[in-house]
Amino acid sequence: MSLKDKEKWNSKYRSPGHRSGGSPCGWLVENSDLLAGSGRALDIAAGDGRNAIYTAGRGYDVLAVDISEAGLEKAQALAAEKRVSIRTEVADLDSYAFEESAFDLILCFNFLDRRLFPGIRQALKPGGLVFYETFNLDHLKYTSFRREWVLEYNELIRLFQDYRVLRYREVDRDQTGFASLVAEKPRA
Known about the structure:
With about 190 residues, this protein is of the alpha/beta class. About 25% of the residues lie in helices and about 30% in strands. It has 6 helices and 7 strands; from the N terminus they run H-H-E-H-E-H-E-E-H-E-H-E-E. It has helices spanning about 5-15, 25-30, 50-55, 70-80, 115-125, 155-160; strands at about 40-45, 60-65, 85-90, 105-110, 125-135, 165-175, 175-185. Strands 3-2-1-4-5-7-6 form a 7-stranded mixed β-sheet. A hairpin with a 2-residue loop joins strand 6 (about 165-175) and strand 7 (about 175-185). Helix 1 packs parallel to helix 4 (about 70-80). The protein is globular and about 40 Å long.
């Protein structure tokens, strides 16, 4: 990320046309039966906090991290409106220091930086869950995304092949392509 990225995302979240308070990602809701309802959660690239707020409402102590203070300000306002509490941290994920074995749940939606995977793995406690969903190669048929911003086919499942994969899918529908995973980190 860079100052340019920060400005881009702040501009998006401050634009009069941006609506905050969106619903959480479908993959998170569809698989909410796997959520324990307690413990610490980390939402990476949280944006305006829709997934962090949903998870906090399910009983987690949530830290939402994003480069955009404007997005996180909206997240705090929405959390207050929904009467849940989240913590936020403005951070450039290029230099983010993941706390070791600190989280029972890690969320990452619609964001891909392959350099973060070792940190995600390090930050998750044994027995903890990772919910990850982002665009895959099929998405390039519908958009001008750069190839490095999308997953290769089966890449996500390979990245977590030593975890217990609880749910996985790769989908090409509704003019988008994406891969979705829920995986449990092995207990020692």
